[in-house]
Amino acid sequence: MSFVKLAVPVTLVLATIAGVAHANTRAELEARTRKYVWASESRPKGLCVCQDGSGSHGAAGYLLRQDGSNKVMVRCLVSNYFSDGQNGGSYACPTFVPLAQ
Question: Over the stretch 76-96, which tens digit does the pLDDT of each residue have?
Fold first, then answer.
């Protein structure tokens, strides 16, 4: 009986949060992501670690917002460097863990 008493309020809270989350417009979500991610390489913000199992797995990068047709996409942009330290390109890692500031 105590499980039912706990499950009902938790379900109501989750439903309320989901309803509020879906009420946001794309512009509102993009504005919120600007605090943590960047849309161009000139202003990097949050850090992340790639976790996709590729050759970049475990590499640090910057959180990057990419344009999606109907979604606000966030990736972890991992830079690859040459032996002289120059940037040799980058990889937009789709599976990552953000690092806390």
Answer: 999 999 999 998 999 989 999
Listed in sequence order, the residues at least 6 apart from 27 whose beta carbon sits closer than 8 Å to its beta carbon are none
CA 11 from chain centre, in angstroms, equals 26
Around Cβ 89, how many Cβ atoms within 10 Å? 9
Backbone angles phi, psi at 68, to 5 degrees: -120, 155
| Residue whose C-alpha is closest to residue 75's, from 100, 51, 55, 53 | 51
Q: What is the mean pLDDT of residues 67-77?
A: 83
**Closest among 94, 92, 90 to 52, alpha carbons compared:** 94
Please write the tens of the pLDDT for every residue from 14-62: 444 444 455 478 888 888 888 888 766 667 788 999 999 999 999 999 9
User: Considering only CA atoms, which of 51, 59, 97, 55 is closest in space to residue 78?
Assistant: 59
The SS3 assignment for 60 reads strand
